[in-house]
Amino acid sequence: DGEYTDNDNDEFSYTQQIDLANWTLNMFDDNDYKTDTPSVGVKIAGGSQVLNYTLEFTDKPYWSDLATSDVPLLGKKYYVLSMTENTTLNLLDSAADTTLSEGETKTITVGGKPYEVGINFIGSSTVKLDINGETTNTLSAAETQRLSDGAYVGVKSINTQDYAGGIKRVEFAIGKGKLKLVGGSDIQLNDNTVTGLK
Question: What does the DSSP 8-state code read for residue 60?
């Protein structure tokens, strides 16, 4: 059990639960497991359900208030980079976020590693970032890119004043890993689909 705080600083109580499938403990002999050796345990057929993990809020937070908050999942906190259509969450593991103005350089630390970040290019809806000497692709809001060290950078928003001398800012996050949850579909961990884990 715990308390979750959304991006409006509203607090919501939640519970977490793991329900195992209906397994039967018995003795079996499986040569693929141990040759000619009886074993006591649970034999699960391929494709069978193993467990359900449920995170349930006592009072439901607004979907739109999840972005830029830390959501607890299985004992870890994940930073909500973006969400779409009430069914998709893009999460970063152990993320740090900041806002950067054009011409400015900042250093943020993620998992004990420093990342020096500057803006290479910023337009009205796209940005390129220089991160520890590495230049990202052109990114729009809610897009991510994997860095050479395996971390992910995700753009939260781009705000520009389109006139001479106008301020241009990007809000972004860097995390150690990326988790994409889509309702009813296999999850994606670091851009790789995990088959059978929905």
Answer: P
What's the CA gap between 77 and 1, in Å, rounded?
A: 14
Query: Which residue, chain included where needed, has tokens 């937070």?
Result: 61
Q: What is the pTM of this model?
A: 0.74
- 150-161 pLDDT, tens digit per residue, is 999 999 889 998
Side-by-side strand order, sheet with 113-122: 105-110, 113-122, 127-131, 134-135
**170 burial via Cβ count (<10 Å: 0-12, 13-18, 19+):** buried
β-bridge mates for residue 129, sequence order: 119
Q: Which amino acid is at 184?
A: G
Give the CA angle between residues 65, 3, 89 to the nearest 5°.
40
Predicted confidence (pLDDT) at residue 85 exceeds the cutoff of 80: no
Please report how many Cα atoms fall inside a 13 Å half-sphere around the Cα of residue 9, on the Cβ side: 0
DSSP for 61-119, please give it: PPGGG-TTSEEEETTEEEEEEEEETTTEEEEEET-EEEEEETT-EEEEEETTEEEEEEE
Spatial contact of 28 and 42, defined as CB atoms under 8 Å apart: no
CA separation for the pair 68, 166 (Å, rounded): 25
pLDDT level of residue 46 (50, 70, 90 thresholds): confident
Q: Minimal CA–CA distance to 177: which of 187, 198, 191?
A: 191
